Prior knowledge:
Helices cover about 60% and strands about 0% of the residues. The chain has helices at about 10-20, 25-35, 40-55, 60, 75-85, 90-110, 125-140, 140-160, 165-170, 170-190, 195-205, 225-245, 255-265, 285-295.
Amino acid sequence: MNQELHYHSIEELVQAATQAGTTISHLVLHQQAAQLEQSVEEVFAQMEQTYQVMADCIEPGCDPNLRSTSGLTGGSAFLMRKASEENRTLTGSVLSGALYRALAVSELNAAMGRVVAAPTAGSCGILPGVLLTMEQEKGFARKDCVMALFTASAVGMVIATNASVAGAQGGCQAECGSAAAMAAAALVELAGGTPEMVSHAVAIALKNILGLVCDPVAGLVEIPCIKRNAAGAAGAFVAAELALAGIPSAIPADETIWAMKKVGDAMSSSLKETAEGGLAVTPTGLKLHQQVFGSSDPVSCSGCRGCHSGS
């Protein structure tokens, strides 16, 4: 396959896949193999290993005794999994399964157990949460879930090229928003949706999280980041369900990405990973900062900011 992809736009991906009569993931896999001068099998095996790393995070991430180094977080994935497995949830095993898996990956990351940048450490649980759930709860083949990662990665590259995936640059909309869009795209293709539906899912996921600030309490990738991973996983399912039902986004994906960049550029620096605004400077946020660092001054945690993006 000689299809040339430049990852300049979602529309480019959609047109290329539509014209070739195939999926976005198929195009990306073959293009990456050609670019890396490796076989398709070798490139797939590398992505399969990435998927396995994600899968390996779930059990340790659900340990009831897991705690982050700061002591601020841990144990949420265990509680969510328990509720899911005991059928005590409002939405059933698919959404609750995605929630606990997203929490597990995020909490393990915060505990320095394993860093999965997908696309960043701060948003690491969203993509694994939805794909591992599709495999475990819906019975999708692992091979197909791995292929969906190629679609997700293509969407991530387009966003990174035209906007940002870093909280320090664009707020949490750039981190959890990008991850939710990537996950929504993966879900749609996995469920048999068209490339055009993939595009609509990306736009809907980003629209629904547009403007979300990055305000880590104590400058750490824990509060509210971990719970935002659960919300991002849920948002990915919302976007995918709408797109698969044939509901289009009124604003195209590429224009939505452009809007996200503009919103990020206009966002105050206090709301972009500096821990100088939002939840970080609430009375409780400052108290937690003092609990961890012995100071209620959020600026004193500047040394911790670099750990957030993980990209």
